[in-house]
Amino acid sequence: MTADKLRLGVNIDHVATIRNARGGDNPDPVRAAVMAEAAGADGITAHLREDRRHIVDADIDGLMAALTVPLNFEMAATDEMQAIALRHKPHAICLVPEKREERTTEGGLDVAGNDNALAAYIAPFRDIGARVSMFIAADRAQVDACLRIGAPVIELHAGAYADAWAEGRWDDRDVELAKIADMTAYAHSLGLEVHVGHGLTYDSVGPVAALPQVAELNIGHFIIGEAIFQGLGPAVTEMRRHMDEARK
To answer: Could you confirm whether 198 is annotated as catalytic?
Structure first.
């Protein structure tokens, strides 16, 4: 197949993490999102967690008002978050697992173990025209479950691959990349749109970006970290460059 342009979604959660560490209004994640958009981001991702540890409700209000690129609203499958999503009607809604004690999302959502409940949960999102995705492990049972419940998009958790790369465990890296590649091809064959995210860096993004069936990468923590040294616009542009080079 011909590799289409790969979209970059920039997660701005950790701009809010820095703001909340001290309180007040700075740095403003909405301003960061607008800057990322100007630098070439195809979309913005924000995770409104139950404990509001980074993004808060007012940030979602601001993002919906300010952005001209799509907002990908990450959320847990709770009644509170469903009501917020239905009120705002974002372009995309990505369901993720969420635990209070975790630093960041540690694994994929168990769609296979909760398919009936999740099918009913996402039905109102389809009614408002939102693109619904499921953040899952690169596992065939989970991919099949996403198809079964009517979720048109999956996002594969790249954490194990990214960790193996960062730690120099090259055999493990290759195994994890093979899982992502296999499940990307399988999901695409079923008609699902495939995204990948979590932990990707300039070094590790290339092999994933090169997979022709991947439509979108969502990257946040690394880009926000690099922004300290490069500036946010150049960090987004540099990630975009690595992705485009891999797609060639």
So the answer is: yes
Half-sphere exposure at residue 161, Cβ-oriented, CA atoms within 13 angstroms: 25
Model pLDDT, residue 115: 87
What pTM was computed for the model? 0.92
Tell me whether residue 157 is one of the annotated catalytic residues. Answer: no
Residue 157 pairs with which residues in a beta bridge?
Answer: 197
Helix (H, G, I), strand (E, B) or coil at 79: helix
Tokens of 61: 């209000």
Q: Is-catalytic flag, 74?
A: yes
Catalytically annotated residue among 54, 188, 198, 242: 198
Q: What is the pLDDT of residues 151-204, one digit of tens each?
A: 999 999 999 999 999 999 999 999 999 999 999 999 999 999 999 999 999 999
Q: How confident is the model at residue 248 (pLDDT cuts 50, 70, 90)?
A: confident
| Catalytic, out of 14, 37, 54, 74 | 74
* Domains of the chain as residue ranges with CATH: 7-247 (3.20.20.70)
Average pLDDT over residues 35-50: 96
Count of C-beta atoms within a 10 Å radius of residue 242: 18
CB atoms within 10 A of CB 235: 23
Catalytic residue, chosen from 14, 47, 54, 242, is 47
User: Coil, helix or strand for 26?
Assistant: coil
Interacting residues of 131 by C-beta distance below 8 A, sequence separation 6+: 91, 92, 93, 152, 153
